[in-house]
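Structure, all two chains, one model.
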Amino acid sequence: MDNDRVDQITDNHKCECGHSGIVEGLSDRVDRIIDKHNCEASSLIQVLLEIQSENHWLPKEALDQVAERLQVPLTRIQQIATFYKAFSLVPKGRHGIHVCMGTACHVRGAQRVLDTVENLTGIKPGETDLDLKFSLETVNCLGCCALGPVVEIGGKTHGKMAPAEMADVLKNYE
Amino acid sequence: MERINSANELEALRKSILSSRDTNKPCITICSGSACHASGSKEVAARIEEEIAEQGLSDKVDVRKTGCHGFCEKGPIIVIHPEKICYFQIKPEDVTEIISETIIGKKIIERLLYTDPATNEKIIYESEIPFYKNQERLVFGSNGSIDPKNLDDYLAIGGYAALAKVLFQMTPDQVVEEVKQSNLRGRGGGGFPAGSKWEGSRNAPGDIKYVIVNADEGDPGAYMDRSLLEGNPHSVLEGLTIGAYAVGSHEGYIYVRQEYPLAVENVTIAIKQAEEYGLLGKNILGSGFDFTVKVHMGAGAFVCGESTALMTALEGRAGEPRPKYIRSNVKGLWNRPSVLNNVETWSNVPLIINKGADWFTSFGTESSKGTKIFSVVGKINNTGLVEVPMGMTLRDIIYNIGGGIPGGKKFKAVQTGGPSGGCLPEGLLDLQVGFDELTKAGSMMGSGGMIVLDEDTCMVDVARYFLEFLTDESCGKCVPCREGIRQMLQTLTNITQGRGKEGDIELLEELAETAQEAALCALGKSAPNPFLSTLKYFRDEYEAHIKEKRCPALSCKELIAFYIDPEKCRACSICARKCPSNAIIGGKNLIHMVDQEKCTKCGTCFEVCPPRFRAVKKISGEPVPDPIPEEARIIVRGGKKNE
């Protein structure tokens, strides 16, 4: 997803005073995380993981702050943030949909389930809808192959999914 | 908790733990591994605790949330001790009955037992169920009986005795020698002898050395390392500490995927507990040996499972591999000697120390000793983790333990070794599993993924699937991998989408050879394996796709069409209601038809059409028959069709 889309999503969610609602209070939290790791540059990945885990994505402001405090060039942070799958440079929806594309799920029809999710939500893997309702990701094995094909939504696992059931499951999310 | 300061104190503590435990007291163990968790074990556990409190049994019944039992197909699983009664697929609603009937009434609830599909008999005990009976669970067996968050449970089954033994009775050289004698080979993929790796590190110059647990388990469809780390983290820590003592390291790392939150949590707790007990940290067990362990979470990159990439990632950089002119056991993490072994390899170490190399080598084949945990998944009845001695045949694993193929379908192939492995056909079912045996057949051991494929699986698509995975995961550092795999994927995608042409197979072979020869790391070098092995054993499928534009397994979306047989359709409308694309032209008492323009080929109609009609068909390589005329579509009930 490109920068335009990030802007579009952040614009959609500004509060009345003009602050971007998504990054509110983030600076303090980032400071706290960095302090926890004693400002060590070798902890860069762990710091980014914690920010990602708390904020669900890595806003530009947060990356700048990490670069300054850890004394690491922003280019290296960008390299890491784009190299590893766990990081997102765009905001995430309220409900993260993870469609398992592991081998066991694949041979049991995961592609058809993914196609259906894409049709129903209107987003492709790696994207978030403009209402910030859903983010769609594919993952390469959730380790519950007995339940395949598996779709995890907001941490809840939905096993033995068939395309026909997907609509009913997604209806439950606001 | 007071620190343990000697081997004698450890044994004294173990005795006091054992004597405080009443072996006759009922104990309910609940599998809380990730797979059972996903099928609702958390809710079951909560209900059990609630019910026990309500019935005032809190003092009389223990409840223990354990790691993965392995039989994921039948989760959530509970085992009631001391009788060891196994109940499967428990729902919260079953709990009240379990407590009142089995715990209080000592009666067995038939419907929750395992039913042997062959004989239809109910089986009460784990040890008699074919899935468990045919395994040899040396490493994985303790998972079902200990609470991974409680070090006392691990001590109660003899935990850390091996560590005490090496610290007080063995020199580091003796430890290395014992592991070398055992011929323990790396369980993560390469199969490199662990003892030689350790020895190389021990003899390498330098005071600072590292030992590392590779828990960056990335092969899709393989989750044994996760289950070990979640279910028995102390066995990994104990093995790691023994390794550290052997090579002379004082600092260790556990590199674990952040996608495994429970493994991260359990191993972090385990480290903390071991430190409190004096089993990690300064002056371990009063021996003067210091060793600390840190957990590093991987941020999601398959290539980081490769040893040099993993070390680069540990240093806080993007995890790209480097050439191995000098092995990492001599120059690894921060250019220091570093021993990296997989979770399962480390877990084997305490067993070897406790029972000796001779005992360990009594299991397995000439070149592969001990046992191996496989995750048997895909088109298989008993999905789960199985631990078998090396040398068992694929047939025994798939049929005797795995219970064969569901739905009366025919076995086609088994894929082993993850994305670097290959597919083995029916003719090789009697192959004995072992590192060299699998490699010779064109596949590999890998970390132990075993994906069973049936007649509905398209082998070209399987090769395409793995190359898609690897294209995505290629770090991009070397050209043969970054560009070569991408081109292979493009060609395979063309073939599965009906755009294959003469010469594609030869082109793929050429690209495969280049990647094998020239790629920097194992990811690229082994990337062509899925293609080469499927080509070797299933060339006819490639040719059908290219020459006839036909998918013999009726799986490739672009090459198949769904069609309703007008002779068989009874206008029940189920397919029309379920179709997510409104592609069924239906109507009351009218033979249904598929609107080929609207059809997205999701296969829902095929799945929901009642078995007594079986009207929906998949066709490939031939044109879809023309729709029947409107007047011929009317069905007159009473069995006669209006002509």
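Chain B touches chain A through 60 residues (CB under 8 Å).
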